[in-house]
Design brief:
disordered N terminus; seven-stranded mixed beta sheet; alpha+beta; five-stranded mixed beta sheet; single chain
Length: 766
């Protein structure tokens, strides 16, 4: 990439399409501590800053700005606060944060910066990356866009939350010092009680009124040797409620006079309702009316049936007689799209076209002069999110036009903005209650279902309405992971050394489409090159002298969105499967081959060696078994996996998955293990079975029987091992998913001798 192209791309990504103003760019980044005025005193609770309140019994209330969708983020963030305030974890209660800028995301936007991994290496960051990161964090703090995504929640909170809690602790100690006329240095805090060896003691609730009026003094974060909560086993704070049924998900919301709506989209992508015969539907019991929905939040035009219960609404939806209008541009077909992607990837390789995200040396000359060349085409299909809780939102529009909504959303602020646009009110007139999410995986970064619910609520005369999608609607009208194709080439010199690597890929640009739907004010007239399409492919950790990684951005017409681990989910499969092919071509053990290419990457090598050691890579396996491995970095976390498989009577069985990670400081060990287990199961499901086929404009897969998931009986033994680290935490919600598919494919090659270059793998095994 030329300097000009990189600079333009960085500034475009950092500003989300906005301009940097002279003068503003030189001011320091906005503080994320916040003012106590954000939390008016209530019920004896007194705020010490924008994040922390202390209750009269000495408990702690934390403003929770992240959505809980099973990833354990509520527990991990509460642990940061419990640590710095020195209180038991069970004494920390959560209260949904507001929409103020301090609660916005910052680190997740840094992930958009298209810098090579070498420029981002902790402790060795390039000057350009540090500058771009500073600008991006500043812009993000000004915008205050709250996103639970990009595996960034703990990384984003690591300093701000600890600082907020440490500042509150300093205020409380200062209050005790003033009250007892004793030096702060002589006071001790244990389990939320401040004491002095001479006898005085008080819990936080007895000191908070004076603390709110006291300056914080010196604020110092705990040193690592003093940590008592971070990195230690802890029970999840949402565990009991989720076990006894008290946890409230979106579909659990029940309000007085609640009515229900079911959405019906066209059977084909991009279709719209034409003439509708509603008589049969309206004659059914419990049915009130049919509402036409224009295209909202990126969703196609649709119909909504309003009824007494969800069942009544769904039955009436089936009875509707609609003349559906086809997509104006013609019916979509995934096979034609996949063929065009393959042609685009091959054309980019031959013509050396596409947007070059990374280059090193002269790969064309190195390939031309190679003693041996290896080339392979890899493909990945569209994928649906298939969250266990289908799309839903509950909305009430009050007589004074205030809008209140209950939503399982990953973007509460953007949901509020979407609701305000549909209702025609100021965003300040919209209140968002974030429920638990029955799975997110990026699907709930969208706001289409929120916009639809608000539109239906405009027809209910002030009664609240709960809008929901059926499972079939969810599968057939998702924002899918983009299909992709990649042509990979490599060359060895006469001594058998790997000298050149090229990857030319093709697939739909993702983030520009998401911005158009969710942040329309930031959508530009042209697409900025989308780093997520090549992430994990353009920043190889391997020391290959000559490289070129380029991408052709397409626009197929299929709605695409963020799927768990985004571009890494397919690019890891392309890259790590091909690296195995190169090891085979070099007649080397796959582990040894990788390690020889990781001389300058000791952290990557350590993770790979840990996984291999724990999996017993050097030990022979019984006949009918084999292992495969993969190494991949995503969201700042280095992950290596070894997958062990067997085949008996042609029945494939995944027996064991060993995962090693360098994810920086581990805040919640069980949470890390749970995320690895979740990622492995989801990764195996996608690798073996996951695909979306579009025929005649319609999605063929309509429910789980059409796209199976790995069952409990099929789930392998899953082991998690972490490398000790003093670095700040990095992402954990997604990094263990990308290596699953290539490690499995590499194991299958070792077992069968058959190289599988297309996902899903199961249909190809016969």
């Amino acid at each position: 990439m030329t300097a000009l192209r990189r600079r333009s791309l960085v500034l475009s990504a950092a500003t989300l399409g906005g301009a940097l103003l002279v003068g503003w760019g030189l001011t320091p980044p906005r503080s994320r501590l916040g003012s106590a005025s954000l939390w008016p005193a209530a019920d004896g609770e007194i705020a010490l800053n924008g994040w922390i309140k202390i209750t009269k019994d000495g408990g702690v209330v934390l403003a929770m700005n992240r959505s809980e969708m099973g990833q354990g983020v509520h527990t991990a963030l509460a642990m940061l606060v419990a640590e710095e305030l020195d209180v038991p974890l069970q004494r920390v209660r959560l209260r949904q944060a507001g929409h103020e800028a301090i609660f916005g995301s910052a680190e997740s936007f840094v992930g958009f910066l298209p810098f090579h991994a070498d420029a981002r290496e902790p402790g060795q960051e390039s000057t350009a990356f540090r500058a771009a990161r500073w600008i991006t964090l500043k812009v993000a703090r000004e915008l205050g866009i709250n996103v639970t995504g990009g595996s960034a929640s703990v990384a984003d909170a690591w300093l701000p939350l600890r600082l907020a809690a440490a500042t509150a602790r300093a205020r409380l100690l200062g209050a005790a010092s003033l009250r007892w006329k004793l030096p702060v240095a002589e006071l001790e805090v244990r389990d939320g009680i401040v004491s002095h060896s001479s006898g005085p003691r008080a819990h936080y609730g007895q000191l908070v009124e004076q603390a709110a009026l006291s300056p914080p003094g010196d604020v110092v974060l705990k040193p690592r040797h003093a940590l008592r909560v971070i990195g230690k086993p802890a029970r999840r704070i949402d565990l009991v409620d989720k076990c006894d049924g008290r946890a409230v998900y979106g579909l659990d919301v029940r309000l007085p006079d609640l009515v229900y709506a079911s959405v019906v989209h066209a059977p084909m992508i991009g279709g719209a309702p034409g003439p509708v015969d509603v008589n049969a539907a309206l004659r059914l019991p419990g049915v009130e009316r049919i509402v036409r929905l224009p295209p909202l939040g990126g969703a196609d035009a649709a119909l909504a049936v309003l009824a007494r219960t969800t069942w009544h609404a769904r039955e009436a939806a089936r009875a509707l007689q609609v003349q559906w209008q086809p997509r104006p541009g013609g019916a979509l077909d995934s096979k034609r799209i996949e063929a065009s992607l393959e042609a685009a990837a091959r054309g980019a390789a031959e013509q050396r076209s596409g947007f070059g995200f990374h280059s090193r040396g002269d790969s064309a000359a190195a390939l031309a002069g190679s003693a041996r060349r290896v080339e392979a085409l890899y493909r990945a299909p569209y994928l649906a999110h298939a969250t266990m809780e289908p799309m839903n939102c509950t909305v009430r529009i009050h007589a004074d036009r205030r809008v209140e909504l209950w939503a399982p959303t990953q973007v509460p602020g953007l949901a509020r903005d979407a609701a305000a646009r549909v209702a025609g009110v100021d965003p300040a007139a919209v209140t968002v209650h974030v429920t638990y999410l029955g799975g997110g995986f990026g699907r709930r970064l969208e706001v289409d279902f929120v916009a639809q619910a608000v539109r239906v609520a405009q027809e209910t005369g002030g009664r609240p309405v709960q809008l929901s999608w059926s499972r079939e609607e969810d599968f057939m009208h998702d924002f899918y992971r983009p299909a992709g194709a990649a042509l990979l080439r490599a060359g060895f010199d006469a001594q058998g050394r790997l000298q050149a690597f090229e990857a030319h890929s093709a697939g739909d640009a993702l983030e520009p489409r998401w911005i158009e739907r969710v942040l329309p004010a930031f959508a530009g007239p042209i697409d900025v090159p989308d780093k997520t399409t090549v992430e994990g492919l353009y920043d190889l950790p391997y020391a290959i002298p000559h490289q070129r990684i380029a991408h052709v951005a397409t626009r197929s017409g299929v709605p695409v969105g963020n799927w768990r681990s985004v571009g890494h989910s397919q690019n890891a499969f392309f890259k790590e499967s091909f690296i195995d092919e190169l090891a085979f071509a070099a007649r080397q053990d796959p582990l040894r081959f990788r390690l020889e290419l990781l001389d300058t990457k000791p952290r990557h090598a350590a993770v790979l060696q840990l996984a291999a050691h724990k999996a017993g890579w050097s030990r022979a396996l019984p006949r009918g078994r084999a292992r495969g491995l993969a190494l991949h970095e995503s969201f700042g976390t280095i992950c290596a996996q070894v997958v062990e498989v067997s085949s008996v009577d042609k029945q494939l069985r995944v027996l064991r998955v060993v995962t090693a990670l360098d994810c920086g400081t581990v805040v919640h060990p069980q949470g890390v293990a749970q995320q690895v287990e979740s990622s492995v199961v989801m990764g195996l499901s996608a690798a073996l079975y996951g695909r979306i086929d579009i025929e005649g404009g319609a999605v063929r897969q309509k429910n789980f029987p059409d796209q199976p998931m790995v069952t409990l009986a099929q789930t392998p033994a899953i082991e998690t091992h972490t490398v000790p680290s003093v670095l700040p935490p990095t992402g954990m919600g997604e990094p263990a998913l990308p290596p699953v598919a290539p490690a499995l494919a590499n194991a299958l090659f070792a077992l069968t001798g058959k190289r599988l270059r297309e996902l899903p793998l199961q249909p190809l095994l016969g």
